[in-house]
Amino acid sequence: MSAIDTNIARAMDYMARFREEGVNHHIGGQSVPSASGATFDTISPVDLSVLATVARGAEADMDRAVAAAKAAFPAWSKTPGAERRKILIRVAEAIEARAEEIAFTECMDTGQALRFMSKAALRGAENFRYFADQAPGAEDGQAIRTATQMNVTSRRPIGPVGVITPWNTPFMLSTWKIAPALAAGCTVVHKPAEFSPMTAKLLVEIAESAGLPPGVLNTVHGFGEDAGKRLTEHPDIRAIAFVGESRTGSLIQAQGAKTLKRVHFELGGKNPVIIFDDADLDRAVDAATFMIYSLNGERCTSSSRLLVQESIYDEVTRRVAEVADRIKVGHPLDPETVVGPLIHPEHFDKVMGYFATATVEGATVAAGGRRVGDTGCFVRPTLFTGARNDMAIAQEEIFGPVLTAIPFGDEAEAVALANDVDYGLTAYLWTSDLERAIRMTDALEAGMMWVNSENVRHLPTPFGGVKSSGIGRDGGDWSFDFYMETVNVCFPRGTHKIPKLGG
Ligand code: NAD
Question: How far is the centre of ligand 1, averaged over its atoms, from the C-alpha of 450 (Å)?
Answer without folding.
Answer: 24
